[in-house]
Structure of DUF58 domain-containing protein:
Amino acid sequence: MSTRQKYHGFGFIILLFALFSGSLFLWLFGAFFFFMALFTAWWNRRLPQWVQVEWEADQSRVMPGTPITIRLRLHNRSWLPLPGTLVQFSFPDHVVCEQADEVVMRNQRTFLRFHFHLPLRKSAERLFVITPHKRGVLWLSEAQFETIPLFGEESVSLPLPLSFSVLVYPLPLPLPPLDLTATEPEGTVVTRRHRMEDVTFLRGVRAYTLGDRLKHIHWKASAKTGQLQTRLFEPTASPKWKLIGHILPSYEPLLQKYNDTVNERTISALAALSVQCRKQSLTYELLLTVKQRGREHYHLHAGSGKAHHVQVMTHLAKLHQYGPTSLAAVLHRLEHQSAAGEMIMVVTPRLDEQARDMIERLARRGHRFTVLDVSEEQPVIRRFEQVGSASARKRKVSQQ
């Protein structure tokens, strides 16, 4: 029987005796049990307003394997004590916890439990350490609270609101030696414009010609002159890279293969390339073969510096539940949107024949490709000449 049923049973029996005896004391004593049942229900409803949980972490953005010290506070703002109080919450199974009262692994989750004994109008504090080992976002929206009631036998369980989130960046993958700043001399390629232009420094405008990018049109100057005007930028010797990440489907039914491991290796390689570009102060943009906001691929525009690096790492950390697209489709879009001579780095665990043909077409237009093969544990850098040699030999044999 529940506490409410017991109170009602005792009250009904006492009121029955009071009905036959006419005793005022029995009438009041029986009514007291019904009042206690109502008071217990009212207490349980009001308990979330009197009990509060506070959460403080010393870090909000970490790398995998970094310990995070958390300060947990539980406040009792009521005029009654809370003995035998239990606070419980859960993290993914890759999170290692220390200094918790109980740690239970269940359903690929790590449950942490803390025991408190709170006097009236007092607070308690606990310190513990968690260490995440995978990229992603650790977040909590509520904690489960249980306490032994003073006027009953059943423990009261209720959720307490809690706001906590930690962003875990992907761990950069160790890469073979790669010189991102190596470029060809300016005189080796015949071109009508500078090989590199710094869009942050404007040096003037000129009349629009067919083939200029729409985003480089100076609309205010065009409105003043009555003709379309194109921005002119200062030349720069710093190379600009396009980083293309090839993300495979999580599961391929035809191959009966899970690709989570190779996708994580691709994301870690992209993080390592972003770190190198940040250290060498290079301008780069990121393209991923995943659908993003109605588009067929994700595109982060070119940038450099700390803010751009943090934006790239944040998106790589939050990359979950994606819809993959074709690498050849992304390369085909570059054929119409990129200028000749741009340097492109493709990070892929699998390069099919259609993607190789697109790389050859772009290479004939003057693009320079570097393929980072992450199909194995140790990444391998393959220049385009090595990647496309097999198909080139096939065409040469067919022509003969």
